[in-house]
Amino acid sequence: MGAFSDKLEYLSYPFVQYALIVGILVALCSSLLGVTLVLKRFSFIGDGLSHVAFGAMAIAAVLKLTNDMPLVMIITVLSAVLLLRTGQNARIKGDAAIAMISVSALAIGYLLMNIFSKSSNLSGDVCTTLFGSTSILTLSKAEVALCIILSVLVVITFIFFYNKIFAVTFDENFARATGVKAGAYNLLIAIVVAVIIVLAMNLVGSLLITALVIFPALSAMRVFKSFRSVTICSAVLSVFCALLGIIISVFAGTPVGSTIVAADIAAFAIFALTGALKRGK
Amino acid sequence: MALLTCRGLSIGYEGKEVIGGLDFEVCEGDYLCIVGENGSGKSTLMKTILGLNPPLGGSIGFGDGLKQNEIGYLPQQTDVQRDFPALVKEIVISGCQNKLGLKPFYSKEDKARAKAMTEKLGLTPLEKRCYRELSGGQQQRVLLARALCAAEKIILLDEPVSGLDPLVTAEMYELIESLNKEDGITVIMISHDIDAAMKYADKILHIGKNVFFGSADEYRNAKGAFASREGGEA
Prior knowledge:
The complex is a heterodimer of chains A (281) and B (234).
Chain A: H1 2-10, H2 14-32, H3 34-39, H4 45-62, H5 69-85, H6 94-116, H7 122-131, H8 141-160, H9 162-170, H10 172-177, H11 182-204, H12 206-223, H13 227-252, H14 256-280
Helix pairs in contact in A: 2-8, 2-11, 2-12, 2-13, 4-5, 4-6, 4-11, 4-12, 5-11, 8-11, 11-12, 12-13, 12-14, 13-14
Chain B: E1 4-13, E2 16-26, E3 31-35, H1 42-50, E4 57-62, E5 71-74, H2 79-82, H3 88-93, H4 97-100, H5 108-120, H6 136-150, E6 154-158, H7 166-181, E7 186-190, H8 194-200, E8 203-206, E9 212-215, H9 216-229
Parallel strand pairs in B: 3-7, 3-8, 5-6, 6-7
Antiparallel strand pairs in B: 1-2, 1-4, 8-9
């Protein structure tokens, strides 16, 4: 019991509270566009773009920028726009384009770090970037504030453009043919996705971002039938899994990112089973 | 004045012409069928009319106050849509999106319009059903209701009966005919079912090696020549 209350005390530390706030916000934001991305066959965009962000961080390190956020953000947004802009009508299809950008950015980023880095623990640095590890527990007040602002913007944008995102996701050609500015909304989706991914890198690291984007959406789609209920369910589920994952990782001393994803996987299993039972009836 | 007038229209992709020299017009209340073999440019023509694809030459004119984005469009279904989690209701009202502009939410009028179109196509009992659980014919009707939300005067249908069984196909044709005859909606339909085209349409545009534009009766008389020269494809 003593050990338990010791652990409970962790929750009163500011750094744990910061981690919880950021974790919940990032989980919420990343789940919102998950449905759209999964349906548009862009499941791996989280992975691809986070590798781009990794590459951008390497460039920032080489240039010895103290604050790499703006550069990372700009490069990631540009890549997202490039990937999503052409949408359904691209000549190189979504999955291939993402694979290309993802692998290139990862390779170039690692190459740059290898050539220029003075760090003695290079593989450790790379591992941290990819898997997130502890950086969420070392967040500063300013980073938390930035995260809150960006998250609020993402959520407001999503609610405001919800109907348009639906129309463009369901049928881009119809939307364009009837005079909806589908190109502009694709651009908007791309920018929001890029912002979410740069945010999420702090939490779970680049390799596990994909899980945050797709798992809640896929789970919700097993059970729910309307676009609205799928969206709401995936948001709630994502927040719940993030919360659960962070708390377990604090208590059990496991890595934060992997624990959250494990919670997402478990939730998916439950939802898939529920969906199968519902259909079986 | 014609709703849609094409003069010397040349269509294609990325500068490569698929077919050129197309002259035809569509007047209010017309039922035009565009027929031709696979690859003859039917879908390209449709995309060009809708403004999804720029014309390579010639002109497309819109008359009677019709704007390019006031054409309702029934596209062929994509794989994405087949497993899309959305209610019939949500899809039908998304046709009103072009009336929203930058406004984020649908107005009372939009909702009433979506409801009326749902009613008209007999979809009211399915309103709260999931799109992916419907039959092919029901899905087509949902997309048709959405097209009618987007436009009241003219609709463009891209192979509306492909993949439907004969009974549902006949129902679909009758539905389209009633929209045309009773509601006065101008219909442009792409089809490779030439018999149905001659039965229902008033005008036919045949594209391919031989281009024909005229009434269905004229086409019936000229059809022998087409059939023999183009390998007898029905």
